[in-house]
Design goal:
With about 425 residues, this protein is α/β, with parallel strands linked by helices. The chain contains 14 helices and 17 strands.
């Protein structure tokens, strides 16, 4: 095989990046793949001028590309659900290998699509769907194949990380920073997927499946966004020696796995707490290696294109050698995948940051502490923020020791019923990771 022929669906940011990187680095890529990788056709709603299309056939008909007998690999780079799923299914049934950057497609339909790929003897590769240019899927599936993974935590949405970084560094409000993120192209006109954690939940569901050998379970992922993180919470966290990051966390427990996305306080001394701006990072804890962390751009034209092309190179190598793809899509042989229960968030154990708006008079702290004690919740530290007083109300800030979430919620219901407490108690989970040795 002298040439691997690729068809690209879409001509947006990532698709143009794939074409540009292939054109620029053709020698190195071909030498690594063992053959020339050639884009022969692109299908998109309209032609664009964001890359050199010389020698590439263009069509507005996706069916024409998917049915093109000359194409070996289809790169699905249009995103979304319905159209992308239909396109990928048809490509796989036509015996074409598929590479995608579509994390929503994999997280929500991957179980069925991987089975379909296996039935047709082709690959469905998705490295670009999680953490952009960071080769985190390969690291989990291949580099850490000897390890039993115990936990994984990641900053896996650059938009949310940019917003929280700006709020911390420049004391800005969430709404103000969100508008800038939209102006810069980091956030969509409808930013729900990014700021409410859905994008991160898609990625976490994939990472959890690869880490623990369970089928994809996106629908069971607890998801909480960053829109309710207030500037005072960020300042309080700093006063306590922490930073707030939007994390995806999955952990192996004796009775199941945790699968949760939410704002999290992390000690500022820990490396993942220092990941700022639009960058991503994934921290993995495993038995043989210990702790490893993977850092880099989680999005962007050429960063994501790098991951797309890496998957294409893997397919080219297998075809050149005349063998079937040797790495299972989720890292475990499909007949060895097993259902693992996902714990309800109420069953998860965490330390907590609490911000209570209370009247400033003697005995309030004692009342709150008494309730916490009755629920067997230990308080690690307390701040009374006199500088943040609003009329007769003063913020009372607490960090607790680890406790099951159900218990902290029961205590907070009682605290919120106190006459001296106004409104709801702000609750943010706290995480600490063992420092790498």
């Amino acid at each position: 095989m002298d040439s691997l022929k690729v068809g690209i669906c879409g001509l947006g940011t990532v698709a143009s990046g794939v074409i540009n990187v292939l054109n620029r680095n053709q020698f190195e890529i071909s030498a690594r793949a063992g053959c020339k990788i050639e884009v022969v056709q692109v299908a998109s709603r309209r032609m664009r001028d964001n890359c050199d299309m010389t020698g590439i056939s263009f069509t507005t008909d996706l069916n024409e590309l998917v049915n093109n007998p000359d194409i070996d690999v289809v790169a699905e780079l249009i995103g979304g659900h319905t159209l992308a799923k239909d396109l990928v299914e048809r490509a796989l049934k036509n015996g074409k290998h598929v590479v995608t950057a579509n994390k929503a497609l994999i997280a929500e339909h991957g179980n069925d699509l991987f089975s379909l790929a296996a039935e047709n003897g082709v690959s469905l590769a998705y490295e670009a769907g999680v953490a952009g240019g960071i080769p985190i899927i390969k690291a989990l599936r291949e580099g850490l194949a000897a390890n039993k993974i115990s936990a994984l935590a990641g900053i896996i949405n650059g938009t949310g990380n940019f917003i929280l970084t700006e709020m911390k560094d420049k004391a800005r409000d969430f709404d103000d920073v969100l508008k800038e993120a939209q102006a810069l192209g980091y956030a969509e006109a409808d930013p729900t997927f990014d700021v409410e954690g859905i994008d991160a939940a898609h990625k976490l569901a994939i990472l959890s499946s690869v880490a623990f050998g369970a089928p994809l379970q996106f629908s069971k992922t607890f998801t909480e966004g960053i829109s309710n993180v207030a500037p005072e919470d960020i300042r309080n966290a700093e006063d306590l020696g922490y930073r707030i990051k939007h994390l995806g966390i999955t952990k192996r427990q004796s009775n199941g796995i945790e699968l949760r996305v939410h704002p999290t306080l992390i000690p500022e001394s820990q490396l993942i707490a220092k990941v700022d701006g639009v960058m991503n990072a994934v921290l993995i804890e495993s038995d043989a290696v210990g702790q490893t962390m993977y850092y880099g751009p989680g999005a962007g034209s050429e960063a994501t294109a790098s991951a797309v092309i890496a998957d294409i190179v893997d397919i080219a190598r297998a075809l050149k050698a005349g063998v079937a793809p040797s790495v299972p899509p989720l890292g475990f042989s499909m007949d060895k995948m097993k259902e693992i229960p996902v714990l309800d968030i109420k069953e998860c154990v965490s330390a907590f940051y609490l911000r209570i708006s209370a009247e400033d008079h003697p005995g309030v702290l004692a009342e709150v502490s008494s309730i916490m004690s009755r629920h067997c919740i230990n308080i690690e530290s307390v701040l009374q923020k006199e500088s943040a007083r609003i009329g007769e109300l003063i913020p009372l800030v607490m960090l607790t020791h680890e406790v099951q979430e159900a218990k902290i919620d029961e205590a907070l219901k009682e605290i919120e019923m106190l006459e001296s407490v106004s409104g709801s108690v702000k609750k943010i989970r706290v995480a600490q990771f063992a420092q790498a040795k």
